[in-house]
Structure formats: structure tokens, C-alpha cells
Amino acid sequence: MTTSGRQFPKQTYTRPAGLIRRLGAMMYDFLIIVAIWMLLGFARLPFVPEGVDAMNDHAGPGFQSVLFLVTFGFFTFFWRRTGQTLGMQAWRIRIQNSDGRAITLTQSLMRFFCGAFSLVCLGLGHFWMLFSPSKKTWPDSFSESEVVYVPSDKEITRLHADDENAAEPAGKESRKKSKKKS
Questions:
Q1: What's the DSSP call for residue 147?
Q2: How far apart (Å, rounded) are the C-alpha atoms in residues 111 and 14?
Q3: Rounded distance between C-alpha atoms, residue 72 and residue 67, angstroms
Q4: Euclidean distance between CA atoms 62 and 66, whole angstroms
Q5: Which residue among 84, 99, 113, 141 sits deepest, i.e. has the most Cβ atoms within 10 Å of its Cβ?
Q6: Measured distance CA(99)–CA(107) in Å, rounded
Q7: Strand 93-96 relative to strand 15-16: parallel, antiparallel, unpaired?
Q8: How far from 52 is each of 37, 38, 106, CA to CA, in Å?
């Protein structure tokens, strides 16, 4: 896959996202998508022919295609722009290439269809990460992307301080050794 997307910040402290975070983000995004579908359904009501019961009306392929395109557009827009849908932002996870760049349109398409297929298989593609040595789901593998946990600025500050504290004793020990040799 090509890696022409923009570089995301804060790569030093990212780590692979766990299954619970991924499922939580999926649930948030599912609720948002359902709300969007409902708005589209309400917007369609004025165009339902008179005398047709709108509650029993079968929408047909045109409306279903609109729902599909809007859903794909929602995910692709966020994945390509920030690497995070609204649910992913809440759970602090991001989709990116292994080099930390935004995914491409082709990767978004692969990820979208593979994710849908995984859900049709009762989530097997997402639970696959529990058994995979690389901890990747089917959408991760087929789209050649990864989902990472992005720590908050507060966590990064704490991790940075921990790194400095861990490096400090080693520096003191080397100074003590150099003083003893002198």
C-alpha cells in the first residue's frame, strides 16, 4: 500500500489498541451511524408517495445505496482526516499506517468492507486479534494498517518523566564509576 498520507503526531508513546477499546469505539460509532440513518429516513418522508404507509414502505435500492454511501463516507472522512472517528476519539485510538501516516482511500475501502465482513461473521475478524501473534484484526491485516492507543498529553508527560527518572540512576551510576576510576 502507498503511504502518502500526512504524518500523525505523538508516535513515540503509541501502542497497539486493545480489543475492549476497539469494541467501545465501535459501539459509539454504531450509535452515531444509527442517528445519521434516522435523520436520512426522516428527510426521505416528504418524498414517500401519498397513500403509502411510510412505516411499511420498502425503501428500495436507491435509499439503501444512499445509506451505504453515507456510512462509507462517514468512516472514510474521519479515517483519512484525523485517523479517528468520533467513537475512536472518545476511546483514544487511531488508525494509521505502520509508519504513522494517515491511511489512503484504498485502505479505507479495504478496511470498511473487511470490517463489515468481520461483523457478518459474528465479530470473528475482530476477536482474531486475541489469537494473532501480531495482535491484528482482519481489517488491520487486509488494509495493511494498524489501530493504536494514543495517550493523552497528561499521560505523555508522566511517561516522559518516568523515562527521565529511569535514565537518571544509570547516569548517576556511570558518574560514580568514572569518579572511582579517577
A1: E
A2: 21
A3: 9
A4: 6
A5: 84
A6: 14
A7: unpaired
A8: 20, 19, 40
- Report residue 173 as a C-alpha cell: 551510576
Helix (H) or strand (E) holding 41: helix 19-44
3-state secondary structure of 96: strand
- Distance, in Å, from the CA atom of 12 to the CA atom of 33, rounded to the nearest integer, reads 32
Helix (H) or strand (E) holding 95: strand 93-96
Residue 143 C-alpha from the chain's centroid: 12
Per-residue pLDDT tens digits for 60-102: 788 889 999 999 999 999 999 999 999 999 999 999 998 999 9
Residue 114 has pLDDT above 90, yes or no: yes
Three-state DSSP state, 144: coil
Say which DSSP state 6 is in.
P
**Terminal Cα-to-Cα distance of the chain (whole angstroms):** 56
Q: Which residues contact 88 (CB under 8 A, 6 or more apart)?
A: 25, 29, 78, 94, 95
